[in-house]
Amino acid sequence: MKVATYNVNGINGRLEVLLRWLEEASPDVLCLQELKAPQEKFPIKALEGAGYGAIWQGQKSWNGVAILARGQEPHLTRKGLPGEPEDEHSRYIEAIVDGIVIGGLYLPNGNPCPGPKFDYKLRWFKRLRDYAAELLELEVPVVLVGDYNVMPTELDVYKPERWTNDALFRVEVRDAFRHLVDQGWTDALRHLHPDERIYTFWDYFRNAYARDAGLRIDHFLLSPQVASRLAKAEVEKHVRGWDHSSDHAPVWIELHDEPMMPADE
DNA sequence: ATGCCCTCGCCTCGAGGA
């Protein structure tokens, strides 16, 4: 089973690229972020034509998240995180697909820092941690995946010293991510590639992709019940080089069908 | 220190992104 994430930076402006990649990669599940489209402008017909069922939470101009499933309808279990009812940003959507809870998220950027946007990012992170702890208590397969807008370590930034005071790399934000992972989650890409420089985002500015000046900000966090099934984790870097690409690349993990149990268990 | 490039809106510039 292949589970993927892709910050599309505008689903309608990106539709051709998205359909091309779906045809090429055929993920079983795909979480999308930054739809930048209101609910009624989500291109459901085109995605159904490509063989996918979908649930989504749109928003005019900004944010917006979706979950696609190949050959089936994702079973919606939640829209939005608990803890701040007045928060109207479309940043979290959750579904069950093939027995796995898929939480698709788009964490706030937080710049400029300091400021209200940074405060909102930290609050959102806290809400995510509180909710993630509840999910872990269920002891079921859970994948919390999407654009976290955090580079967890210096290995995840092309030039760490340039990013020290940025909301994506501030120590408070790295701490928040680490505390989340330390609840018992597995960072899938880093787990399988402990020493590699891996990026999932390259700025449109400064010829960043050609220079490989990237950031690793799109992450898969796996509950123990699904971490035991992790087989592969890869970034579709070449897609970032396509014409009219998003500034993020798609990222995916491959899961074994059955848990890999220790021999003596 | 800032803009760079790109997306969206309701409209040709501004806001936001990271």
TrEMBL record:
Tell me the cofactor note: Probably binds two magnesium or manganese ions per subunit.
Could you name the domain of life of the organism this protein comes from? Bacteria
GO molecular function list? DNA binding; double-stranded DNA 3'-5' DNA exonuclease activity; endonuclease activity; metal ion binding
Active site residues per record: Y106, D147, H248
The positions annotated as site (Important for catalytic activity) read D218
Q: Which Pfam families match?
A: Exo_endo_phos (PF03372)
* Keyword set, alphabetical order: Hydrolase, Magnesium, Manganese, Metal-binding, Plasmid
All copies of domain Endonuclease/exonuclease/phosphatase, residue ranges: 4-248
List the residue(s) that the UniProt entry marks as the site Transition state stabilizer: N149
Cofactors that this protein relies on: Mg(2+); Mn(2+)
Sites marked Interaction with DNA substrate: H248
Positions binding Mg(2+) in this chain are N7, E34, D147, N149, D247, H248
Q: Which GO terms describe its biological process?
A: DNA repair
Q: Which family does it belong to?
A: Belongs to the DNA repair enzymes AP/ExoA family.
What NCBIfam families is this protein classified in? exoDNase_III (TIGR00195), xth (TIGR00633)
Question: Which protein, by its recorded name, is this?
Answer: Exodeoxyribonuclease III
